[in-house]
What we know:
Number of domains: 1
Radius of gyration: 11 Å
Helix content: 40-55%
Order of helices and strands: HHH
Shape: globular
Strand content: under 5%
Amino acid sequence: MPAKSSSQRRLIAAAEHGATFAKAKQIRASMTPEQMHDFAATKEKGLPRHVPKGTRNRYGKIGQ
Length: 64
């Protein structure tokens, strides 16, 4: 599943690479390494900077 925004991609890439802030730990607990890689590997060209308010994915409230 590709990321919906560049901010989302960067957040999940940080979590994938071992960031220690609370949101990254929450993401690592709720996603498999393969899912995180799919998000982090998304090309940023053409993605909006942020996900529109109120948009959710099945992994949490990213973008709200």
